[in-house]
Amino acid sequence: MHEVNVKILTFGAATQDVFLTGKSLHARRDVRTRDYVEQFPLGAKIDVENVYFDTGGGATNAAVTFARQGLHAGYVGKIGHDPAGAEVLRVLRREGVTTDRVVHDPKLNTGYSTLIVAPTGERTILVHRGASHELKAKDIAIRTLEADWFYISSLAGNIDLLTKLLKHANMHNIQVAIDPGAAELAQTKKFRALLPLITVLKANAEELQLLFGGDDLRDTVVRAGGVCPYVVGTNGPAGAYAAVGGKLYQAGAYQKVKAIDRTGAGDAFGSGFVAALAKGLPIEDALTLGSANATSVVAKIGAKAGILKTSRLKRMKLKITNLEGK
Questions:
Q1: 3-state SS assignment for residue 294
Q2: What is the dihedral of CA 1, 303, 129, 74, to 10 degrees?
């Protein structure tokens, strides 16, 4: 992979993850809600066949995508002085991601997640948010940040930090992609007011619906079209929609694969999409790389193992219509 002279900084969570899999972890359907659930009796000792260790967090997952795609990637976030934090740094440095902007908190532990993975690939996550959710504007020295792109994942609802990052980016011609978390979306009015300052808004169907309403993902993306140059909505294996330049693009799944673990699929799509744009590729290639990256990630355990190292992909067939009648 040849390096591209584009620098992209990612902001948000960093965690160490442990994945548990086994026959005893199969999901059961709740007779009342019809949802699939995991149920463990208190006091029980339950055997698991496999244990996998990885690192996660939307910002570190995205940083690895950018590095593997030949971009100059750096991670900005907060970790603790502990073995989990050391592992986060080790993995990022191994992947060629710069870590000189990482903040160490002397009191808090690094984020940590235990993921119980069912044979369907769906999972239940026990998460300790840790240090990364305490990142503040004063930790970063925002005025000194230099990049071509910012990729911002969840900032634990810190609208003050998000606003300052966006204003700095707009003053210095830095393009911004954002994949918001629940805490940002809960502040709907404040978050929507910031959308004119970003280049790419990527979110899943439920998240976008919180912001713009709509009967289904297509309707939601149509409603959102024009709030920023690229609005991208994803719906897992059902594919994605993107509103760009007055047109609506519909993409299915890149290919059918058995989902082993869906952890990090959304991060893989968003970062793949932005990596293509950062390289100057058209929207068709951006949707293809995003979908292919997510498809590869769900076929392996962990958020990073399946991240693609190539962008030489067969372009997906897209359905393209005009954004009319919003």
A1: helix
A2: 0
Q: How far apart are CA 273 and CA 281, in angstroms?
A: 10
Question: Residue 206 contacts by C-beta under 8 Å, 6 or more apart in sequence?
Answer: none
Query: Domain residue spans in the chain?
Result: 7-14+57-109+130-322
Structure tokens at 93: 């440095």
Looking at residue 117, its pLDDT comes to 83
Give the dihedral of Cα atoms 190, 193, 199, 200; nearest 10 deg: 50
Residues 61/9/85/70 CA torsion (nearest 10 deg): 60
Distance CA 10, CA 150 (A): 6
Q: Which ranges of 69-158 does DSSP label H, i.e. alpha helix?
A: 83-94
Q: What Rg do the C-alpha atoms of the chain give, in angstroms?
A: 19
Asked if 63 and 269 count as a contact pair (C-beta separation under 8 A), the reply is no
pLDDT along the chain (326 residues), means of 10: 85 94 76 73 82 95 97 97 96 97 96 86 85 94 97 96 98 97 94 97 95 94 95 93 95 88 93 97 96 94 93 85 72
| Residues 313/279, Cβ–Cβ less than 8 Å | no
Residues 239 and 261: their CA atoms lie apart, in Å, by 17
Beta bridge partners of 20: 51, 116
* Structure-block tokens of residue 252: 């299915």
CATH number belonging to domain 7-14+57-109+130-322: 3.40.1190.20
As to burial, measured by CB atoms within 10 angstroms (0-12 exposed, 13-18 middle, 19+ buried), residue 85 is buried
310-326 core/surface letters (b: 16 or more CB in 10 A; e: else):
ebebeebebeeeebeee
pLDDT for 2 equals: 64
Q: Looking at residue 34, what is its pLDDT?
A: 72
